[in-house]
Amino acid sequence: MRITNYAHLPACFITATDTEAGKTHVACQILRAWQQQGLSVAAFKPVATGAIIHKGQRASEDALRLAAVTSQSIHEINPYLYDRPASPHIADSRQSFCLSDCLQQYKQLTQQYDRVLVEGVGGWCVPLSADLMLKDMALAMALPVIMVARIGLGCINHSLLTLKQIQRDCDLLYGWIANCIDPDFPDSSSNILAIEQRMTTGTVIE
Known about the structure:
CATH class: Alpha Beta
Mean pLDDT: 92
CATH architecture: 3-Layer(aba) Sandwich
Number of strands: 9
Strand order of the largest sheet: 2-7-1-8-9
Structural class: alpha/beta
Low-confidence stretches: 201-206
Strand content: 15-25%
Helix content: 25-40%
Radius of gyration: 16 Å
Shape: globular
């Protein structure tokens, strides 16, 4: 169930073990792989925190990276942006998250593009509001879920806990991607193998 070839992935929902796991880096790779197949593609990162100022406007750094691949406007990619780099339910000071609006915007993208990639914020159980978690958005979209694992110290525990929780919550888990963000980490291969050996169900993409 570890995914190593992105070209033939379906439209999907990207989550991760935690923040800074490299979701956006992986999302950009998947989008480029789709483009190489001749598909029109869109990214959708409904919620982002930690706004920066870009060309005089508030923006999500992740949305800017995605837009550089897809040529979308950052507003189409990221409708909910909070200034504070915090969990959305804490960072929400200007704009209350509305799941139904988010789903409508996602539906519009699916009508305009061949393939849509949705990138979550933080990890699977991050609260979006007092009543909603990220997983509620994923379940409402009913997309295949792909988890990005930050390969480094502690990744086995974080990865297995997240993968198992996704499996408890739904039957949408499609697979996981190992993101080796630290080139100096000496045990990447052994950690990846440890996760693979302990996850025995799901889809293998070669």
